[in-house]
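Step 1: inspect the first sequence and its tokens.
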Amino acid sequence: VPIADYTFNEFHHSCYLLQPPQHTFLYSFSGLTSLVQRSGMRCLNIIREADSTYLFLLHSYLIKQNRQFSSSLSDISIFIRIKYRIICLLLRLRGLGDNLCLVLAK
């Protein structure tokens, strides 16, 4: 599940994670885990994934720049790409990321 975390905080309304019709609302980490608890379920495991965050950041960057979404990602400055690679590496090292997988039990 994509969540409102790093990419959303960086780009807000230009966030690539808002992809109608499948993703019109982004949960926060605390909101999603609260929803699970209120449903009577319990979390057995929480897995956060940062690798796809790199692409989310690049696509959000293009949207914010009002560039065609079909633009090649290689057209983005090497400095921007390196910046986002470093951010994703730091997120991964901290166990964070914009994708969340919850293993639930009743």
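Step 2: inspect the second sequence and its tokens, then contrast the two.
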Amino acid sequence: SSSDSHWWTSPFLVIAPMGLLCLIVPDVRGVFIETGQRWAYIFLVAFLVTFTLTPFVRRLGIKFGVMDIPTERRIHHIPTPRIGGAGVFIGFAIAVLGNWIIPNKSR
């Protein structure tokens, strides 16, 4: 479709990675940890990673034909990529690993 031809121009695909880059700055991470907002930090990182990766993973699904083709038993009417969960899993995995790696105190 015509909306797929310019999927990378979405402002969200610029804002989300920029937000992620801001979050990985040690001073910003330290503020979250020092104020007891560690879980908010982990959630934001997971959300932004997932939000950023999902369109790319969707495009890979289309490119490699990992599609769910509609039949009478399906609720969708057009072929739909089935690999979108990979972006969600990567966001979750980064959140879990980030929680494991980040020390309890910032310094």
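Step 3: confirm your contrast with the notes below.
Strands lie at 67-68, 80-81. DSSP finds four helices and two strands in the chain.
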